[in-house]
Amino acid sequence: MSRAGEFAQDAPLPTDTIQLTGLRAFGRHGVLAEEKREGQDFVCDLTLYLSLAPAARRDDLNLTLNYAEIAQRVHAVIGTGSFDLIETLAQRIAQETLAFSPLLRAVEVSVHKPSAPIPVAFSDVAVRIFRRAKPERAVIALGSNLGDSRALLNNAVSALRKLPGSRLVAVSDWLRSAPVGGIAQPDYLNGVALLDTCLDPYELLAKMAEIENAAGRTREVRWGPRTLDLDIISYGGLELSDPVLTLPHPRAHERDFVLAPWLSLDAAAQLPGRGPVAELREKLITAADTAAEGEEK
Ligand code: A4P
Ligand code: MG
Fold this sequence. Notes:
Layout: H1 3-8, E1 17-27, H2 33-38, E2 40-49, H3 53-58, H4 67-79, H5 86-98, E3 106-112, E4 126-132, E5 136-144, H6 149-161, E6 166-171, E7 175-177, E8 188-197, H7 201-214, E9 229-235, E10 240-242, E11 245-247, H8 256-265, E12 270-271, E13 275-276, H9 277-296
This protein binds 6-(adenosine tetraphosphate-methyl)-7,8-dihydropterin (A4P) and magnesium ion.
Protein backbone atom coordinates (compact mmCIF):
# COMPACT_ATOMS: atom_id res chain seq x y z
CA MET A 1 0.00 0.00 0.00
CA SER A 2 1.22 3.54 -0.74
CA ARG A 3 2.31 5.84 2.09
CA ALA A 4 -0.65 8.06 1.30
CA GLY A 5 -2.94 5.08 1.76
CA GLU A 6 -1.35 4.20 5.09
CA PHE A 7 -1.92 7.55 6.81
CA ALA A 8 -5.41 7.85 5.29
CA GLN A 9 -6.57 4.74 7.14
CA ASP A 10 -6.11 6.47 10.55
CA ALA A 11 -8.62 9.24 9.81
CA PRO A 12 -11.82 8.91 11.81
CA LEU A 13 -14.78 8.67 9.44
CA PRO A 14 -17.63 11.15 9.80
CA THR A 15 -20.38 9.42 11.77
CA ASP A 16 -23.10 11.05 9.67
CA THR A 17 -24.27 9.60 6.36
CA ILE A 18 -26.64 10.29 3.49
CA GLN A 19 -28.22 7.14 2.11
CA LEU A 20 -29.59 6.83 -1.38
CA THR A 21 -31.11 3.43 -2.10
CA GLY A 22 -32.81 1.60 -4.93
CA LEU A 23 -31.47 3.88 -7.67
CA ARG A 24 -32.46 1.99 -10.80
CA ALA A 25 -30.93 2.56 -14.25
CA PHE A 26 -30.64 0.70 -17.54
CA GLY A 27 -27.13 -0.39 -18.57
CA ARG A 28 -25.22 -2.74 -20.83
CA HIS A 29 -22.78 -4.31 -18.40
CA GLY A 30 -22.01 -8.02 -18.33
CA VAL A 31 -19.61 -10.63 -19.62
CA LEU A 32 -22.01 -12.07 -22.21
CA ALA A 33 -22.36 -10.46 -25.68
CA GLU A 34 -26.13 -10.71 -25.25
CA GLU A 35 -26.01 -8.64 -22.04
CA LYS A 36 -24.06 -5.93 -23.83
CA ARG A 37 -26.52 -5.98 -26.74
CA GLU A 38 -29.86 -6.21 -24.90
CA GLY A 39 -28.96 -4.46 -21.66
CA GLN A 40 -30.82 -4.77 -18.33
CA ASP A 41 -31.63 -2.82 -15.15
CA PHE A 42 -29.03 -2.25 -12.45
CA VAL A 43 -29.87 -1.02 -8.96
CA CYS A 44 -27.48 1.01 -6.83
CA ASP A 45 -27.43 1.83 -3.11
CA LEU A 46 -25.09 4.54 -1.82
CA THR A 47 -23.97 5.52 1.66
CA LEU A 48 -22.15 8.87 1.68
CA TYR A 49 -19.99 9.74 4.72
CA LEU A 50 -19.79 13.45 5.54
CA SER A 51 -20.48 15.82 8.45
CA LEU A 52 -24.10 16.91 8.28
CA ALA A 53 -24.14 19.21 11.33
CA PRO A 54 -22.82 22.30 9.45
CA ALA A 55 -25.62 22.15 6.86
CA ALA A 56 -28.25 21.40 9.52
CA ARG A 57 -27.05 24.32 11.69
CA ARG A 58 -27.59 26.81 8.86
CA ASP A 59 -30.21 24.90 6.86
CA ASP A 60 -27.95 25.46 3.85
CA LEU A 61 -27.72 23.10 0.87
CA ASN A 62 -24.29 24.52 -0.05
CA LEU A 63 -22.79 22.97 3.09
CA THR A 64 -23.82 19.42 2.18
CA LEU A 65 -24.19 17.31 -0.97
CA ASN A 66 -27.13 17.61 -3.30
CA TYR A 67 -28.40 14.01 -3.46
CA ALA A 68 -30.40 14.74 -6.62
CA GLU A 69 -27.18 15.66 -8.45
CA ILE A 70 -25.45 12.56 -7.15
CA ALA A 71 -28.38 10.37 -8.24
CA GLN A 72 -28.18 11.83 -11.75
CA ARG A 73 -24.43 11.24 -11.91
CA VAL A 74 -24.82 7.61 -10.84
CA HIS A 75 -27.65 7.14 -13.32
CA ALA A 76 -25.36 8.46 -16.08
CA VAL A 77 -22.47 6.18 -15.06
CA ILE A 78 -24.71 3.10 -15.20
CA GLY A 79 -26.11 4.17 -18.58
CA THR A 80 -22.74 4.94 -20.19
CA GLY A 81 -20.23 2.45 -21.57
CA SER A 82 -20.15 -1.26 -21.02
CA PHE A 83 -18.15 -3.09 -18.35
CA ASP A 84 -17.89 -6.84 -18.03
CA LEU A 85 -18.17 -6.73 -14.24
CA ILE A 86 -20.43 -5.08 -11.67
CA GLU A 87 -17.24 -4.82 -9.59
CA THR A 88 -15.90 -2.35 -12.18
CA LEU A 89 -19.22 -0.50 -12.32
CA ALA A 90 -19.27 -0.14 -8.52
CA GLN A 91 -15.68 1.16 -8.56
CA ARG A 92 -16.54 3.73 -11.26
CA ILE A 93 -19.59 4.89 -9.29
CA ALA A 94 -17.43 5.28 -6.17
CA GLN A 95 -14.86 7.36 -8.09
CA GLU A 96 -17.47 9.62 -9.66
CA THR A 97 -19.27 10.13 -6.36
CA LEU A 98 -16.10 10.90 -4.39
CA ALA A 99 -15.10 13.48 -7.02
CA PHE A 100 -18.24 15.45 -6.17
CA SER A 101 -16.93 17.34 -3.17
CA PRO A 102 -14.02 17.24 -0.69
CA LEU A 103 -16.72 17.30 2.04
CA LEU A 104 -17.40 13.65 1.20
CA ARG A 105 -14.81 11.50 2.99
CA ALA A 106 -15.93 7.98 2.06
CA VAL A 107 -18.61 6.11 0.17
CA GLU A 108 -20.15 2.65 0.25
CA VAL A 109 -21.57 1.50 -3.07
CA SER A 110 -23.73 -1.58 -3.71
CA VAL A 111 -24.57 -2.55 -7.27
CA HIS A 112 -27.37 -5.09 -7.71
CA LYS A 113 -28.03 -7.01 -10.90
CA PRO A 114 -31.39 -8.69 -10.28
CA SER A 115 -31.71 -9.98 -13.86
CA ALA A 116 -28.20 -11.45 -14.07
CA PRO A 117 -27.93 -14.56 -16.32
CA ILE A 118 -27.91 -17.17 -13.56
CA PRO A 119 -29.46 -20.51 -14.64
CA VAL A 120 -31.13 -21.22 -11.28
CA ALA A 121 -33.75 -19.34 -9.28
CA PHE A 122 -32.39 -16.37 -7.31
CA SER A 123 -33.69 -13.04 -6.15
CA ASP A 124 -30.66 -10.78 -6.35
CA VAL A 125 -26.92 -10.65 -6.80
CA ALA A 126 -24.88 -7.65 -5.71
CA VAL A 127 -21.40 -6.37 -4.92
CA ARG A 128 -20.66 -3.89 -2.15
CA ILE A 129 -17.50 -1.80 -1.92
CA PHE A 130 -16.25 0.83 0.51
CA ARG A 131 -13.85 3.56 -0.69
CA ARG A 132 -12.29 6.48 1.15
CA ALA A 133 -11.70 9.86 -0.46
CA LYS A 134 -8.13 10.78 -1.27
CA PRO A 135 -6.36 13.12 1.14
CA GLU A 136 -6.80 16.84 0.53
CA ARG A 137 -4.05 19.45 0.77
CA ALA A 138 -4.81 21.84 3.64
CA VAL A 139 -2.90 25.08 4.03
CA ILE A 140 -2.63 26.18 7.67
CA ALA A 141 -1.51 29.64 8.76
CA LEU A 142 0.15 29.84 12.17
CA GLY A 143 0.61 33.03 14.19
CA SER A 144 1.68 34.02 17.68
CA ASN A 145 2.47 37.30 19.46
CA LEU A 146 2.23 36.38 23.15
CA GLY A 147 4.56 34.25 25.27
CA ASP A 148 7.50 32.36 23.77
CA SER A 149 6.11 32.54 20.23
CA ARG A 150 8.85 30.51 18.59
CA ALA A 151 8.42 27.62 21.06
CA LEU A 152 4.60 27.82 20.81
CA LEU A 153 4.75 27.64 17.00
CA ASN A 154 7.23 24.75 17.08
CA ASN A 155 4.95 22.88 19.54
CA ALA A 156 2.01 23.49 17.21
CA VAL A 157 3.99 21.93 14.37
CA SER A 158 4.67 18.85 16.54
CA ALA A 159 0.93 18.60 17.19
CA LEU A 160 0.14 18.93 13.46
CA ARG A 161 2.60 16.11 12.80
CA LYS A 162 0.57 13.83 15.13
CA LEU A 163 -2.87 14.51 13.65
CA PRO A 164 -4.70 11.31 12.70
CA GLY A 165 -5.21 10.58 9.01
CA SER A 166 -2.77 13.34 8.09
CA ARG A 167 0.78 13.90 6.89
CA LEU A 168 2.67 17.13 7.46
CA VAL A 169 4.25 17.98 4.11
CA ALA A 170 6.18 21.20 4.76
CA VAL A 171 6.57 24.06 7.23
CA SER A 172 7.86 27.54 6.38
CA ASP A 173 10.31 29.62 8.39
CA TRP A 174 8.77 31.86 11.05
CA LEU A 175 8.59 35.44 9.76
CA ARG A 176 8.20 38.56 11.90
CA SER A 177 5.25 40.78 10.89
CA ALA A 178 3.64 43.98 12.15
CA PRO A 179 0.16 43.43 13.66
CA VAL A 180 -2.74 43.84 11.23
CA GLY A 181 -6.23 44.80 12.41
CA GLY A 182 -5.85 48.14 14.18
CA ILE A 183 -5.27 46.88 17.74
CA ALA A 184 -2.03 47.97 19.47
CA GLN A 185 -0.16 44.75 20.23
CA PRO A 186 3.31 43.17 19.85
CA ASP A 187 4.68 42.04 16.47
CA TYR A 188 3.73 38.54 15.33
CA LEU A 189 5.70 35.52 14.29
CA ASN A 190 3.84 33.93 11.38
CA GLY A 191 4.29 30.94 9.13
CA VAL A 192 2.46 28.40 7.00
CA ALA A 193 2.25 24.60 7.06
CA LEU A 194 1.07 22.29 4.30
CA LEU A 195 -0.84 19.25 5.49
CA ASP A 196 -2.26 16.36 3.48
CA THR A 197 -5.26 15.15 5.42
CA CYS A 198 -8.21 12.79 5.32
CA LEU A 199 -9.87 14.59 8.24
CA ASP A 200 -12.99 16.33 7.06
CA PRO A 201 -12.61 20.13 7.11
CA TYR A 202 -14.75 20.64 10.23
CA GLU A 203 -12.89 17.87 12.07
CA LEU A 204 -9.65 19.61 11.07
CA LEU A 205 -10.99 22.94 12.44
CA ALA A 206 -11.85 21.19 15.72
CA LYS A 207 -8.29 19.80 15.92
CA MET A 208 -6.89 23.31 15.27
CA ALA A 209 -8.97 24.64 18.20
CA GLU A 210 -7.65 21.82 20.45
CA ILE A 211 -4.05 22.73 19.57
CA GLU A 212 -4.76 26.45 20.18
CA ASN A 213 -6.37 25.68 23.55
CA ALA A 214 -3.43 23.51 24.59
CA ALA A 215 -1.23 26.56 23.91
CA GLY A 216 -3.28 28.59 26.40
CA ARG A 217 -5.22 30.51 23.75
CA THR A 218 -7.89 32.82 25.17
CA ARG A 219 -10.34 34.91 23.15
CA GLU A 220 -10.95 38.32 24.73
CA VAL A 221 -10.69 40.63 21.73
CA ARG A 222 -11.17 39.72 18.09
CA TRP A 223 -7.86 40.30 16.28
CA GLY A 224 -6.26 40.84 19.71
CA PRO A 225 -2.92 39.34 20.84
CA ARG A 226 -2.77 35.55 21.08
CA THR A 227 -0.41 32.78 22.13
CA LEU A 228 -1.38 30.77 19.08
CA ASP A 229 -3.71 31.19 16.13
CA LEU A 230 -4.24 28.44 13.59
CA ASP A 231 -6.33 29.35 10.57
CA ILE A 232 -7.27 27.03 7.73
CA ILE A 233 -6.38 29.04 4.63
CA SER A 234 -7.63 26.44 2.17
CA TYR A 235 -8.73 22.81 2.05
CA GLY A 236 -8.31 21.34 -1.43
CA GLY A 237 -10.34 23.48 -3.82
CA LEU A 238 -13.25 23.74 -1.40
CA GLU A 239 -15.18 27.01 -1.18
CA LEU A 240 -17.49 27.33 1.84
CA SER A 241 -19.37 30.40 3.01
CA ASP A 242 -20.03 29.16 6.55
CA PRO A 243 -19.03 31.63 9.31
CA VAL A 244 -17.90 28.63 11.39
CA LEU A 245 -15.52 27.65 8.60
CA THR A 246 -15.10 30.02 5.68
CA LEU A 247 -12.95 28.60 2.89
CA PRO A 248 -10.71 29.83 1.59
CA HIS A 249 -9.98 32.06 4.61
CA PRO A 250 -11.70 35.35 3.72
CA ARG A 251 -8.70 37.57 4.56
CA ALA A 252 -5.84 35.37 3.33
CA HIS A 253 -5.47 37.13 -0.03
CA GLU A 254 -4.75 40.48 1.64
CA ARG A 255 -2.15 39.24 4.14
CA ASP A 256 1.48 39.11 3.23
CA PHE A 257 2.20 37.17 6.45
CA VAL A 258 0.17 34.32 4.89
CA LEU A 259 1.07 34.67 1.19
CA ALA A 260 4.85 35.09 1.60
CA PRO A 261 5.50 31.95 3.70
CA TRP A 262 3.04 29.95 1.57
CA LEU A 263 4.90 30.96 -1.61
CA SER A 264 8.21 30.01 -0.01
CA LEU A 265 6.89 26.44 0.21
CA ASP A 266 5.01 26.29 -3.10
CA ALA A 267 5.79 28.76 -5.88
CA ALA A 268 2.79 27.48 -7.89
CA ALA A 269 0.28 27.80 -4.99
CA GLN A 270 -3.31 28.74 -5.88
CA LEU A 271 -5.90 30.29 -3.59
CA PRO A 272 -9.24 28.72 -4.62
CA GLY A 273 -11.53 31.26 -6.27
CA ARG A 274 -8.79 33.91 -6.34
CA GLY A 275 -5.94 32.53 -8.44
CA PRO A 276 -2.16 32.20 -8.18
CA VAL A 277 -0.75 33.24 -4.81
CA ALA A 278 2.27 34.82 -6.57
CA GLU A 279 -0.05 37.22 -8.44
CA LEU A 280 -2.06 38.03 -5.31
CA ARG A 281 1.17 38.89 -3.51
CA GLU A 282 2.34 41.10 -6.41
CA LYS A 283 -0.93 43.02 -6.19
CA LEU A 284 -0.55 43.40 -2.44
CA ILE A 285 2.98 44.74 -2.74
CA THR A 286 2.00 47.16 -5.52
CA ALA A 287 -0.95 48.43 -3.45
CA ALA A 288 1.30 48.90 -0.38
CA ASP A 289 3.89 50.80 -2.49
CA THR A 290 1.19 53.04 -3.97
CA ALA A 291 -0.21 53.77 -0.49
CA ALA A 292 3.30 54.58 0.83
CA GLU A 293 3.94 56.96 -2.11
CA GLY A 294 0.59 58.67 -1.42
CA GLU A 295 1.59 59.22 2.22
CA GLU A 296 4.96 60.71 1.22
CA LYS A 297 3.32 63.38 -0.99
N1 A4P B 1 -13.42 30.57 11.21
C1 A4P B 1 -14.09 30.74 10.02
N2 A4P B 1 -13.31 30.37 9.01
C2 A4P B 1 -12.13 29.94 9.53
C3 A4P B 1 -10.95 29.42 8.95
N3 A4P B 1 -10.82 29.29 7.61
N4 A4P B 1 -9.93 29.06 9.77
C4 A4P B 1 -14.02 30.89 12.50
C5 A4P B 1 -10.07 29.22 11.13
N5 A4P B 1 -11.18 29.70 11.74
C6 A4P B 1 -12.20 30.07 10.94
O1 A4P B 1 -11.55 32.68 15.01
C7 A4P B 1 -12.88 33.15 15.03
C8 A4P B 1 -13.78 32.14 14.33
O2 A4P B 1 -13.45 32.08 12.98
C9 A4P B 1 -13.60 30.72 14.83
O3 A4P B 1 -14.55 30.42 15.80
C10 A4P B 1 -13.78 29.86 13.58
O4 A4P B 1 -14.95 29.03 13.70
P1 A4P B 1 -10.61 32.85 16.26
O5 A4P B 1 -9.31 32.19 15.95
O6 A4P B 1 -11.34 32.44 17.48
O7 A4P B 1 -10.47 34.42 16.41
P2 A4P B 1 -9.56 35.39 15.56
O8 A4P B 1 -8.36 34.66 15.02
O9 A4P B 1 -9.29 36.62 16.40
O10 A4P B 1 -10.52 35.79 14.43
P3 A4P B 1 -10.20 35.74 12.93
O11 A4P B 1 -11.34 36.41 12.27
O12 A4P B 1 -9.80 34.37 12.48
O13 A4P B 1 -8.92 36.64 12.90
P4 A4P B 1 -7.88 36.64 11.77
O14 A4P B 1 -8.50 37.24 10.56
O15 A4P B 1 -7.19 35.35 11.69
O16 A4P B 1 -6.89 37.72 12.35
N6 A4P B 1 -1.45 40.40 12.34
C11 A4P B 1 -0.32 39.74 12.05
N7 A4P B 1 0.79 40.41 11.70
N8 A4P B 1 -0.27 38.38 12.12
C12 A4P B 1 -1.37 37.62 12.47
O17 A4P B 1 -1.29 36.39 12.51
N9 A4P B 1 -3.72 37.64 13.07
C13 A4P B 1 -4.87 38.28 13.30
C14 A4P B 1 -6.10 37.46 13.49
C15 A4P B 1 -4.95 39.74 13.32
N10 A4P B 1 -3.70 40.39 12.97
C16 A4P B 1 -2.58 39.71 12.69
C17 A4P B 1 -2.58 38.29 12.76
MG1 MG C 1 -8.10 32.49 13.90
